[in-house]
Q: What sequence folds into this?
């Protein structure tokens, strides 16, 4: 499937009929064949003391089992969060049920998102076909995300109002639960993985557009954010629309600083990556919240 060009009708990523994983049909085990008749063993006379001891063991065993079951019920009831479970289920499957123009609007408005609080507007150039993560992410980033799995990857590329910069934004829909997503978020925070240049996301270049020459060497600034409310990792990577190479890429968190002297910082490319990622993330959160909202 080719890219969805700007100006065309809304196209959902992955036009192919989506499918959900279904485990193999579980077949009931074959009936146990009828037992053959065997000679009965003679019954030994039981000693009264042994009988009483056995009875005590049975009572103690049943008490322990009952206590364990009750404890597991209490733990399950106290820790289970039906709302969180519902949000995760809806978020994981939302990639093939939410219209592409909702996930990646044709136009993003960034009021105050530019350097010095300047307003920004980004126009969508194209949407990539939905895919897996292999090949679309650098191997090391793919390895880092492996603990949460990759159910689907969606990407789109935007350009600013002057067509001088381009930004690819992506949504990695994972297979993880709340605990796994929190663990990944904690690892990104404590190890500062979002600032490592060897974990930069890849771009999505688009032929015959300002992003035609947007490749790995053109990456100037990026951001990666692990969400914990929904099983999604949001990323964005920005660069110049003229295809120039950048030798000193800088993470958006540092490039947006007022004293940034790198190429990305001086050109405002950190603001581009952060601004586009933030707005796509907000839209996803709102949409998933609407999907899980219970009618009054």
A:
């Amino acid at each position: 499937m080719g890219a969805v060009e700007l100006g065309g009708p809304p196209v959902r990523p992955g036009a192919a009929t989506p499918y959900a994983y279904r485990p193999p049909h579980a077949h009931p085990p074959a009936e146990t064949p009828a037992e053959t008749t065997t000679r009965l063993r003679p019954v030994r006379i039981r000693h009264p003391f042994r009988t009483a001891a056995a009875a005590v063991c049975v009572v103690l065993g049943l008490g322990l089992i009952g206590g364990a079951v009750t404890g597991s019920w209490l733990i399950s009831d106290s820790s289970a969060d039906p709302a969180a479970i519902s949000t995760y289920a809806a978020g994981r499957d939302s990639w093939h049920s939410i219209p592409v123009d909702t996930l990646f609007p044709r136009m993003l408005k960034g009021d105050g998102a530019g350097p010095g609080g300047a307003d920004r507007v980004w126009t969508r150039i194209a949407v990539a076909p939905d895919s897996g993560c292999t090949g679309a992410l650098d191997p090391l980033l793919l390895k880092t995300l492996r603990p949460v799995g990759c159910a689907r990857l969606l990407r789109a590329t935007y350009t600013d109002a002057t067509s001088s910069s381009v930004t690819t934004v992506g949504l990695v829909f994972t297979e993880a639960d709340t605990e796994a997503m929190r663990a990944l978020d904690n690892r990104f925070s404590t190890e500062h993985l979002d600032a490592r240049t060897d974990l930069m996301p890849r771009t999505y270049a688009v032929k015959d557009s300002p992003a035609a020459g947007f490749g790995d060497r053109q990456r100037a600034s990026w951001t990666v954010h692990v969400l914990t409310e929904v099983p999604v990792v949001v990323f964005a990577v920005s660069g110049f629309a003229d295809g120039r190479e950048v030798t000193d890429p800088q993470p958006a968190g540092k490039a947006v600083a007022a004293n940034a002297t790198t190429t990305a910082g001086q050109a405002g490319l950190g603001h581009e990556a952060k601004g586009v990622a933030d707005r796509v993330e907000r839209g996803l959160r709102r949409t998933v919240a609407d999907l899980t909202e219970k009618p009054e």
